[in-house]
Amino acid sequence: MEANFSAQILRAALFAARAHAGQVRKGAAAEPYVNHVIEVAAILAEHGAPEEAILAGLLHDTVEDTETTDADLTAVFGPVIAGLVAEATDDKEKPKEIRKALQISQAPKHSEAAKQLKLADKIANLRSIADSPPANWNHARRIEYVGWAGRVAAGLKGVNPGLDALFDTTYRAALARLASEMP
Ligand code: ZN
Q1: pLDDT in tens, 43-75
Q2: Chain segment 124-158, per-residue pLDDT in tens
Q3: Residue 64 appears among annotated catalytic residues
Q4: How would you class 104 by CB atoms within 10 Å of its CB: exposed for 0-12, middle for 13-18, buried for 19 or more?
Q5: Is 111 helix (H, G, I), strand (E, B) or coil?
């Protein structure tokens, strides 16, 4: 790891902003996609996650959702960061329901840094599902997502107590929000 962490963070943020240029979140607010990865990195930084997890947090959706390859990340950020992003990347060749089942079964097997990264990602996604859900997601689909996120998170907890607590708070808030919007 280079000495100047601020420079690395900004380099990763710029890389992510360029990679995700033109992409927006599915939510009604149609936020720029890069807002999501900055939120994930901020959650990690605020809870004392290791530097490599924060950097990978900024880059975690580039391989899954942009033209960026694992080799690109390795060349620019090195094998540790690229490896963490790989742990957070779903195999899009597989059907969606299989990918969702794999996230649950693989969660306990990830490295400690990847567990924290994936938990922060789920926290950010739960906030989005509660506050700015995709326009085409009905109430039942939002509830189903929250339940699935809870099952994935169960296998990610136990590394960073502050993140575990934030997940639980966010999970309960999302369920309360959905209960209040019950059709
Ligand atoms: Zn994400």
Answers
A1: 999 999 999 999 999 999 999 999 999 999 999
A2: 999 999 998 998 999 999 999 999 999 999 999 99
A3: yes
A4: middle
A5: coil
Query: Distance from the CA of 27 to the center of ligand 1, in angstroms?
Result: 13
Cα 49 versus chain centre, distance: 14
CA of 169 to the centre of ligand 1 (A): 19
* 60 alpha carbon – ligand 1 mean position (Å): 6
The residue from 46, 64, 131, 181 that is catalytic is 64
Catalytic: which of 31, 51, 65, 87?
65
**5 Cα–ligand 1 center, Å:** 22
Structure tokens, 24? 């927006």
**Cα 103 to Cα 132: distance, rounded to the nearest angstrom:** 23
CA atoms of 168 and 175, how far apart (whole Å): 11
Identify the CA nearest to 122 among candidates 82, 83, 154: 154
- With 60 as the cut, is the pLDDT of residue 2 above it? no
Distance CA 151, CA 138 (A): 21
Active site residue 65: yes
Kindly state the tokens that stand for 110. 């990830």
Rounded to the nearest angstrom, the distance between the alpha carbon of 76 and the centre of ligand 1 is 20
